[in-house]
Design a protein that fits this description.
Layout (H helix, E strand, L loop, with lengths): L4 H4 L5 H14 L5 E2 L11 H12 L12 H15 L8 E5 L3 H10 L7 E6 L3 H9 L3 E6 L10 H7 L4 E7 L11 H14 L2 E5 L24 E6 L1 H4 L6 E5 L4 H11 L5 H12 L3 H21 L15 E2 L4 H6 L5 H10 L2 E2 L1 E2 L15 E4 L4 H15 L12
Parallel strand pairs: 1-10, 3-4, 3-5, 5-6, 6-7
Antiparallel strand pairs: 2-8, 7-8, 9-12, 11-12
Helix pairs in contact: 3-11, 4-11, 5-10, 12-15
């Protein structure tokens, strides 16, 4: 029996494939320092766990409305209204098992299958953007992110990609994999284009609490933009709740339509986890803020150390918990084909990273090579991982891999 072509062609999130490889090597007794997965190394705060335990003990174990428990949607609405400075109503909110499903639901709600509708998305970017655009029968239009623009995009490049078939633009800030942040002036220009050309904006803001050097800005907060913006957020990164699978969106028009997609796929989000989500958003933010402060400290450490490696230069990321160093010179020095060969070499020496090609095809005419490191790991792991990288790649100005932090 045959497997459908769209299944064969379906993309994946390579971080999980590399993680599986890392886990296999560890089972074989190999010592691997992993920078490959974007998962906080903190435990979920106790008051959040207590809320889920209480929900279970109170019998909150059955189906809920497809859009989510109304009291939890009220918590999400309050949180988004407070942090995005817009008037979000509970009926604008849908909760799902993680934020990832909303990518597919939004593409399905804003484009028609197989008629040439286009979706613009950042490249490099979260790989599920492209895979779900294709799986839902729309046309993916990559928008190049530039290192010289601190991994933002040139507004003229965006204008050149807008056509009468453009239905949706995906924005991600702070950004995976680069840690880049869109400036408010960029958001204003995007907003003007969205209104002029009448397309939707999917605002992937799951790293919104991890904007280190300036206040987070949402495009939804700009005049007349909430109505055409799908705000997407979740508890995984902000509250160390990756396994709880709690994501949510808000939009006054699309919410009931997205809820119908939830009915057709997952029925509803995990019931007891929804009460944990409410506790996270309504409760003390001290633990979340402590995590963010720790990630910022780790960012400063890893960027300094990466810039000591021969053939590596690394910009200071403004948010998320990823470093995206340029390794073009290192690849050349080591006589490797590309960043993927460098990734494999580093894995042989006990360091797991991801290559830029795991986040989309290299933009045409761009010869630069990058790797991604998640610094959502301990300072001890960062120090040891960079020591191993220096042993392979060398240290600037020396012939050895001496660690100088």
């Amino acid at each position: 029996m045959d497997i459908s072509k769209r299944t064969i062609d379906l993309g994946t999130e390579t971080a999980f494939e590399v993680l599986a490889e890392v886990n296999r090597l560890r089972r074989e007794g190999k010592d691997i320092i992993s920078f490959c997965i974007g998962q906080p190394d903190f435990d979920t705060p106790q008051h959040i766990k207590d809320a889920a335990i209480k929900a279970i003990n109170d019998g909150k174990t059955g189906y809920t409305d497809s859009a989510g428990v109304m009291s939890v949607r009220e918590s999400v609405a309050r949180y988004l209204s407070r942090t995005r400075h817009v008037d979000v109503k509970p009926e604008h909110v849908v909760i799902a098992n993680g934020a990832k499903p909303f990518i597919a639901y939004t593409v399905a709600c804003t484009t028609d299958h197989g008629v040439g509708d286009e979706v613009i998305y950042p490249n490099p970017g979260f790989p599920i953007y492209q895979s779900q655009i294709i799986a839902n029968g729309a046309v993916p239009v990559p928008l190049p992110l530039s290192e010289k623009r601190k991994f933002s995009f040139d507004i003229e490049e965006l204008k050149a990609r807008i056509s009468n078939r453009t239905k949706l633009l995906i924005l991600n800030t702070p950004q995976n994999p680069t840690g880049g942040i869109l400036e408010e002036d960029d958001l204003k220009e995007v907003a003007a284009l969205a209104k002029k050309h009448d397309f939707w904006v999917y605002a992937d803001e799951v790293y919104c609490t991890l904007s280190y050097d300036k206040e987070f800005k949402s495009i939804a907060s700009l005049p007349d933009m909430y109505e055409r913006t799908i705000i997407s957020d979740g508890a995984s990164k902000s509250y160390a709740m990756t396994g709880w699978r709690m994501g949510y969106i808000a939009n006054p028009t699309l919410a009931p339509h997205i809820a119908r997609w939830v009915t057709n796929t997952e029925s509803c989000a995990n019931h007891m986890s929804q009460y944990a989500l409410a506790a996270a958003l309504d409760g003390s933010q001290v633990e979340s803020e402590r995590m963010a402060a720790s990630f910022k400290e780790r960012r400063d450490i890893i960027v300094k150390l990466l810039n000591e490696i021969d053939g590596v230069r690394c910009l200071m990321p403004g948010g998320a918990f990823y470093a995206f160093p340029n390794v073009t010179a290192a690849v050349k020095k080591l006589k490797l084909k590309d960043s993927e060969e460098l990734r494999r070499l580093l894995l042989k020496h006990g360091v797991a990273v991801l290559a830029d090609i795991h986040f989309g095809r290299r933009n045409p005419g761009d010869p630069e090579q990058h790797i991604r490191l998640s610094y959502a790991t301990s300072k001890e792991n960062i120090l040891e991982g960079i020591r191993r990288m220096k042993a392979v790649m060398g240290t600037k100005g020396t012939q050895d891999g001496t660690l100088t932090w």
